[in-house]
Specification:
The complex is a heterodimer of chains A (402) and B (157).
Chain A: H1 21-27, H2 31-41, H3 53-62, E1 69-74, H4 83-90, H5 92-106, E2 110-115, H6 120-135, E3 152-157, H7 167-174, E4 198-202, H8 203-215, H9 217-221, E5 231-238, E6 244-249, H10 254-260, E7 266-271, E8 277-280, E9 298-303, H11 308-322, H12 328-346, H13 351-367, H14 371-375, H15 377-386, H16 388-391, H17 394-401
Chain B: H1 3-20, H2 27-38, H3 43-53, H4 57-66, E1 78-83, H5 86-90, H6 93-104, E2 117-122, E3 134-136, E4 139-141, H7 146-154
Parallel strand pairs in B: 1-2
Antiparallel strand pairs in B: 1-3, 3-4
The chains are: A alpha/beta (402), B alpha+beta (157).
Amino acid sequence: MNNKKKERKGEILFSQYSYGSSIKKALSLSREDILFELKSSKLKGRGGAGFPVSTKWMLAAASISNEKFIICNADEGEPGTIKDRVLLLEYPELIFEGMVIAGYTIGAKKGIVYLRGEYGYIKKPLEDFIETMKKDNLLGENILGNENFSFDIEIFLGAAAYVCGEETALIESLEGHRGEARNRPPYPVNTGFNKKPTSVNNVETLACIPHIVLNGGEWFKKFGTENSTGTKLFSVSGDCELPGVYELPWGTSIDELLYLVKAKNTKAVQVGGASGYCLPKEQFNRKLSFEDAATGGSIIIFDESRDMLKVLKNFMEFFVEESCGQCTPCRIGNMKLLEGVNMIEEGKYTFNYLNKLKSLGETMQVASKCGLGQSSPHSFLSILEDFKDEIFSYENRGRNGK
Amino acid sequence: MLTEEKTSLVEELEGLVLMYGNKRSSLLPILNAVQKKYRYISEYAQQEIARQLNIHPAEVYGVISFYGFLNSTPKGRNIVRLCKTISCDMKDKISVEKAIERELGIKFGETTKDRKITIEFTNCIGLCDEGPAMSINDRVYTKLTSERAIEIINQVK
């Protein structure tokens, strides 16, 4: 992999940033000031769920405890998502400074980066950067001479489990258990890591913080749309000439993005990774934003040559393997949906049975315990609906079946 | 297993427990360290880790069986993991897959007879823009062609 930092362009995350400047500014402000700026920025979580960051931090700040934690969720596992890898390798200062500011704001002394096992090669550069920050007194005891504030960061390596991107599963994993999601409530902001108040934030969310602290919430709001403020990193892969990570304002339409990455003959775009939705051509005018086509940033492009049933099969195989198996709707449901895909592939399906599977998918969306099972039927439902002409044509199934 | 080997493993685990702390949250770092060195976590190691952390061995096994990168049965000295998720799959992963199988004479999920290499599939490793991608132990390789994949694997010791 080559270091492309110099070529990257963007209005917020990929803009010029002077290392250390946001911590300096943050420590001159009161906690309330920072929360106020965050609130006015309307920053929402970048992992996909889109929870308002100011609310999460206010709850964590209001929790009374002698110990609190900031966790950076770097368990980027959604198929098609590569933005965190880029941020961790090229912009660690933004992430770590965001964590320090988070610690200062909610009153935590300890930050943990939960790095996915697949990113083991990033651990060393991150630890080296932590040492640099310690030397510069941006981490460790009495940061920048502030006697009331100390903060440390530790890198914790996972061991390959998609579900650990779910915040309570992540906390279970940190505590040394199987990464099985917890019931919520209680929420991590009250009862998190080691039962202490914990704020779990996505890598990209934390990387936005230094820029908001430096430039203010009003400035941040200038980018994006009314309800989706700021910019977003889109991880683009699939059938296009220029795959990679792009920083674009929320509200960019899929058509505009396709033009930018030089995608040709595009048939479908998967927005939000395997757990997201597959949009056909007629919907390419939709806007990427929380209010329209919401996404954690994964954009996978399919051109006319792709067999959408094979795409769906790949997704369902992914979920069958990655379901933690704790709750029945997700464990059995995903297997049944995959079976259904195989039946179509072999030409051994009935519409009556497929309709039952669709209703099973809808049940999974409400009955599963965590986001994995709640979102895994999305692609099953959307691909079978929007590409039914292709999938159920006799000619196609005759060709793909045997 | 020889008693001497047992003792050296126990000492090694004691060192790890000392380094990460005698607490439940040290379990994953300890398991990762054992896995990295031996490419698997033996039953004996599992029991010893359980004893030192004061938890039941079934708890240790439960954690190992949950995570993709931990295993309780021996694997080759080098683990090659080829990404099979959609973006890599679309970039002709199948050619790379077939070439590796032909060259090594084994199927995915198997280990070479000399125990040098295990090949397996992995889900998305976050290199979707540079697929097809694979990892060998801690290193990653991108934009593979079948020929280049074989060159890389040939260099593995």
